[in-house]
Structure formats: C-alpha cells, structure tokens
Specification:
The structure is a single chain. The chain has one domain. The chain contains 4 helices and no strands. By secondary structure, the chain is an all-alpha fold.
Length: 98
C-alpha cells in the first residue's frame, strides 16, 4: 500500500471506528505535505491523543519541525521545546584533567 492511499485508508477508518489523528499527521508529514499534518495534529490535540507526548522526538515529523506552527503546537500541548543537535554541529567539549 502506498503512503498516500494509507492516509486515505486511515481517514476512512475514522468514519467507522478509530484511527489516531496523530498517525495520520505523521503520514502526511512523511509525504512532504505542509498543511495537512497540522490539520491532523490539531485534531489530535483536540482529541487529547496520547501520541502527542512524542511530538518533539518523532522523526516522522522532522519535515514540519521548522514551521512556526510546530513550535506553537508544542507550546499548546505543554511540552518543553526540545532543540536537537546534529552530529555536524555537536562538538563535545571535554574537561581537561591534568
């Protein structure tokens, strides 16, 4: 099943049962969509989706992390804003012990 059709399948599941709005947001973000992930993340927030606790560390949401709406959602959820370090920018400093 392709990712686009998986998004549609998850949305259809919501009409007959339950499918996490958060998971639908992940799928759209992974597809490179910019607005649909936020639509579904806001739905997840309204539904108090437990998956929101992983909002800051979920790599599937990396494509939308730089969008200002992401930081606003993190604030609304009440999570501390986590700043990732990349391996290139991380240069650990070690204390020199004589």
């Amino acid at each position: 099943m392709q990712e686009g059709s998986e998004c549609e399948a998850r949305q259809a599941q919501r009409e007959t049962g339950y499918s996490s709005a958060y998971v639908i947001a992940e799928l759209y973000a992974d597809l490179g969509e910019k607005d649909q992930p936020f639509r579904w993340l806001n739905t997840a927030y309204q539904e108090r989706d437990p998956w929101l606790v992983g909002l800051e560390t979920d790599f599937l949401l990396d494509p939308i992390r730089s969008d200002p709406r992401f930081a606003e959602l993190v604030r609304k959820v009440g999570l501390p804003l986590f700043r990732r370090r990349t391996l290139r920018s991380h240069s650990p400093q070690r204390d020199h012990v004589p």
